[in-house]
From TrEMBL:
<dbReference type="Pfam" id="PF00296">
    <property type="entry name" value="Bac_luciferase"/>
</dbReference>
<dbReference type="GO" id="GO:0004497">
    <property type="term" value="F:monooxygenase activity"/>
</dbReference>
<dbReference type="InterPro" id="IPR011251">
    <property type="entry name" value="Luciferase-like_dom"/>
</dbReference>
<dbReference type="InterPro" id="IPR051260">
    <property type="entry name" value="Diverse_substr_monoxygenases"/>
</dbReference>
<comment type="similarity">
    <text>Belongs to the NtaA/SnaA/DszA monooxygenase family.</text>
</comment>
<keyword id="KW-0560">Oxidoreductase</keyword>
<dbReference type="InterPro" id="IPR036661">
    <property type="entry name" value="Luciferase-like_sf"/>
</dbReference>
<protein>
    <submittedName>
        <fullName>NtaA/DmoA family FMN-dependent monooxygenase</fullName>
        <ecNumber>1.14.-.-</ecNumber>
    </submittedName>
</protein>
<dbReference type="InterPro" id="IPR016215">
    <property type="entry name" value="NTA_MOA"/>
</dbReference>
<keyword id="KW-0503">Monooxygenase</keyword>
<keyword id="KW-0288">FMN</keyword>
<feature type="domain" description="Luciferase-like">
    <location>
        <begin position="20"/>
        <end position="391"/>
    </location>
</feature>
<keyword id="KW-0285">Flavoprotein</keyword>
Length: 446
């Protein structure tokens, strides 16, 4: 059976994707940037817009990291404002489960779901570093296994709060013409090792039953967390084979939780570069990568792995001959680097072998290792490749991250989307009103 392609748009606010030097690059804070981006996504019939989260300004060598975005408006404020200028587009926000509390987050998302008439989604994430935790009352950080344990409990409590209202808890009084709430609606009690709360939840059940749940972890714990309760999961796998392996692994975990394959969507993030021909697109992509990874950016990224001040290192020369410093990462704060996933010395040796084999300078190597899954080519090539990934079960669609804000999505909407529509694998109009409708997800029972 031919699958339908799902597409979404990531407002690129907390990474090095944006080409800041491009004259078309705009603000990541002014509301008009969000409006342009969201309206383009809706014009292209995308499922949803996705906002990442930045809880603290990043630092490196004791200074604010100035090669990335240096501000991030509050997620709920932006999404609530976008609800007024969009009609169909889903609105997905990344909210942390390590430092927030379930009642507050559940209430905010339930309110957003009502405000948008059923278009709200929550990307559940954990926070790994003590640096970010200093902003919050709880402080500190949690070890990896405790982070996911808290996240699971957090989502469980939020779901209980949403489900504390039944669909028929608000009834119409025919005599007075008013609506009445059943006395026990919203009642809840939850006690475990993370939360001890009770009371009455004060937001009725939303149009979607509960907001759509996204999860972004790629570890084994993250995959299991997604299989247990998420509606969609992101991945970083860039090749067809790797994507198929991830797809099969995650989908294979669903039966354990009594779920079907279609209950969880696999939606990797992806960049794209278009050209009149494939050769034109390749040339343009090369220039974009050079702009994204300047010599200064390459050194900053190198320092995150080496855990040293390498400001005197030549980005056009070879990699450092010295090894990375062991121990906690003290150079970069607020950035999840390769150090937290693998032994940095092993990674450094892999980089050296790759640089030697391909005769790459430091900057050229960083360009290679920081590249994301990208679709590069003519509009026809990109449309064909995206469809291939979906039909061959390497994904269910993609979350697109343009390199220019806010107009970087326009070209894709105008040139690639019509080709996918011609193939019959992408909608020509929205058929439902909620994000669950767009994603083909069923509404949870009350």
């Amino acid at each position: 059976m031919t699958k339908q392609v799902h597409l979404a748009a990531h407002f690129p606010g907390v990474n090095n994707t944006t080409v800041w030097s491009d004259p078309d690059a705009g603000s990541h804070i002014e509301f008009e940037s969000f409006v342009h981006f969201a309206r383009t996504a809706e014009r292209a019939k995308f499922d949803f817009l996705f906002l990442a989260e930045g809880l603290r300004l990043r630092e490196q060598n004791g200074l604010i990291y100035d090669l990335d975005v240096v501000g991030r408006p509050d997620t709920f404020t932006v999404l609530a404002a976008l609800a007024a200028v969009t009609e169909h587009l889903g609105l997905t926000g990344t909210i942390n489960s390590t430092f927030n509390e379930p009642y507050e987050v559940a209430r905010q998302f339930a309110s957003l779901d009502h405000l948008t008439a059923g278009r709200a989604a929550w990307n559940v994430v954990t926070s790994w570093d003590e640096f970010t935790g200093e902003n919050f009352r709880r402080g500190g950080y949690l070890p990896k296994e405790q982070r996911y344990h808290r996240a699971r409990q957090f989502l469980e409590v939020a779901t209980e709060l949403w489900n504390s209202w039944q669909d028929d808890d608000i009834v119409a009084d025919k005599e007075s013409g008013t609506y009445l709430r059943r006395p026990d609606a919203g009642s809840f009690t939850h006690r475990d090792d993370q939360f001890d709360i009770s009371g009455q939840f004060n937001v009725p059940r939303g149009p979607q039953g509960r907001p759509v749940i996204f999860q972004a972890g790629d570890s084994d714990e993250g995959r299991e967390f997604a299989a247990a309760g998420a509606d969609a999961i992101f991945s970083r796998h860039s090749t067809l084979d790797d994507g198929q392996a991830f797809y099969k692994d995650v989908k294979g975990r669903l039966a354990t939780y009594g779920r079907r394959s279609e209950d969880l969507l696999i939606l990797p993030a992806a960049t794209f570069v278009l050209g009149d021909t494939d050769a034109d697109a390749a040339d343009r992509a090369h220039e974009i990568r050079l702009q994204q990874v300047s010599g200064q950016t390459a050194i900053k990224f190198l320092e995150q792995l080496w855990n040293r001040d390498l400001s005197d290192h030549d980005p056009d020369g070879p990699l450092p001959s010295i090894d990375p410093l062991p121990g906690e990462n003290t150079v970069a704060k607020g950035r999840a680097s390769v150090r937290i996933h693998r032994d940095p010395r092993d990674v450094a040796n892999e980089w050296r072998a790759r640089a030697e084999a391909d005769n790459l300078s430091t900057r050229e190597l960083i360009i290679e290792v920081t590249g994301r899954q990208s679709f590069i080519g003519s509009p026809d090539t990109v449309a064909r490749t995206i469809n291939e990934f979906v039909q061959e079960d390497a994904s269910d669609g993609f979350i697109l991250v343009p390199h220019i804000t806010p107009g970087g999505l326009d070209e894709f909407a105008d040139k690639v989307v019509p080709l996918l529509q011609e193939r019959g694998v992408y909608r020509t109009d929205y058929e439902g009103s909620t994000l669950r409708d767009h994603l083909g997800l069923t509404r949870p029972e009350s």
